[in-house]
């Protein structure tokens, strides 16, 4: 078998230019196949992962959007919560915040500035000072960012006091915020955060769990209407239903359209490629009538001749397929910088592409190969 | 070796061969002579199982292959026959070695050492050192040696040669005929078409074809 493939490679090599042009269609077709599969696989991967992460099956999220950008306090109140839980079909409601930080005013000596604040993470690397976190029960100490230290203290902030919303704290640590990192300006202990600042954070999301018997849509609608009527902050902003799966739906649609288009391009180019392969194989067969005659006279059966040309056509397509896979791989890495998820070239996609190439070679090589095999011998031997 | 009884061949209305009777014994070296267009190639194509469309009976080793399927015919050609053609009919993009190897590729017999077989015939026809050359890098006589080596590599019983010296000068022809004589001495039956009576002299027996009819000697040919 290997010697037959070598033989095919040799004949293909003999007409490099012509064969390369023939391969172009296959290369483009297979590259398209690789891209489609990569995008599809990448998307499926992300989508299934997302589904597992937050089960949104019977949940409706009601959002409050404040009219003013500076308004970080308005949202849903305890009374609103009671109203929402009173709606028919609602099982229970949980209020959360889309941005769990508090916005505060800080003062050092006479200098006032605004800053963001949150509870201390479990572990933090300090740039100045000691420790890795503000202990849960620590009521007097805080960590601040280097940026805030520069703004409020002109650098020397360690062990100095800072007034936050009329409460005095001592700066025990300074941390740097990396380029790709997000951190608030101030970390306080968990206890202090709960006592003093949690109430300042707007609860701008209401996660409504709907009874299985009730309709999500109807519950969502009446929740919005009830809030418009009774919401305590109704005058400060707007209520709306957020649709996490709606985003992905429209996205899937676009993606499907792109996929259909690329599949169409792939199909057409593979068809044209196939016709090209057939054409080039017809040419090859008629150019090599003498060779066929010689092989037949020295013991080759019609089947041997057919296989020889079929292998040649398949090898031609497989080379095109391999180049196509490489090209597809390149295109995928380029489009990955535009896609919101990562397109993946899987082993399955590669096997699929190689199968498609083989298929094209087989289908479109068959008729010319058969023609070669069926030619009458005496006529072949008269060729020069 | 073979027996031909009352063979006829037509191309449409044209009668290329008529009422041909011929017997060739094992180990014989037969020459077939005749003018151009008389039907020599037509006859040996039938004898070589290259052409199955004829009337009459042809037995090769007492067997008729007229109804044999195409695959089996290929096998018989590969195993029992060896062809040498006038214009060599070598594969121009393949080396000397690869050309000679062709019959072995299709042979279903188990060849334990194909390489040794090829090297052996290369030595027999005196082409040592030319294994890697392309046919275009050889002289006419050397190309015909390649063709002969290819014809004998499978150790056939019968060699069929159509004008093996047709493209060669007389000195080279003599060299080629010496190879044929050597082969014949080792027991290979040879049927050779030629229009050159000097070449025909190397054969044990010569028959003549004229207008599709076969004659045992030149004098009986109707003028
Ligand atoms: N395929 C064909 N169709 C029609 N006529 C043919 C065909 N092949 C051969 N002939 C005719 O049959 C006759 C015998 O042809 P053949 O090739 O056997 O001659 P030949 O004796 O080998 O001649 P040469 O010495 O020139 O090779 C010729 O007259 C030729 O024109
Ligand atoms: Mg002839």
Automatic annotation (TrEMBL), chain A:
Residues 264-376 form the ABC3 transporter permease C-terminal domain. Residues 20-221 form the MacB-like periplasmic core domain. Signal peptide: none annotated. InterPro entries: ABC3_permease_C (IPR003838), MacB_PCD (IPR025857), Macrolide_Exporter_MacB (IPR050250). Pfam families: FtsX (PF02687), MacB_PCD (PF12704). It is found in: Cell membrane. One of its GO terms (molecular function) is transmembrane transporter activity. Belongs to the ABC-4 integral membrane protein family. This is Permease. It comes from Companilactobacillus tucceti DSM 20183.
UniProtKB/TrEMBL annotation, chain B:
It comes from the Bacteria. SUPFAM superfamilies: P-loop containing nucleoside triphosphate hydrolases. Residues 2-223 form the ABC transporter domain. One of its GO terms (molecular function) is transmembrane transporter activity. InterPro entries: AAA+_ATPase (IPR003593), ABC_transporter-like_ATP-bd (IPR003439), ABC_transporter-like_CS (IPR017871), MacB-like_ATP-bd (IPR017911), P-loop_NTPase (IPR027417). Gene3D superfamilies: P-loop containing nucleotide triphosphate hydrolases. The keyword Transport applies. CDD domains: ABC_MJ0796_LolCDE_FtsE (cd03255). GO terms for biological process: amino acid transport. SMART domains: AAA (SM00382). GO terms for cellular component: membrane protein complex. It holds the Pfam family ABC_tran. Keywords: Amino-acid transport, ATP-binding, Nucleotide-binding, Transport. PANTHER family: CELL DIVISION ATP-BINDING PROTEIN FTSE, LIPOPROTEIN-RELEASING SYSTEM ATP-BINDING PROTEIN LOLD. Belongs to the ABC transporter superfamily. This is ABC transporter ATP-binding protein. It comes from Companilactobacillus tucceti DSM 20183.
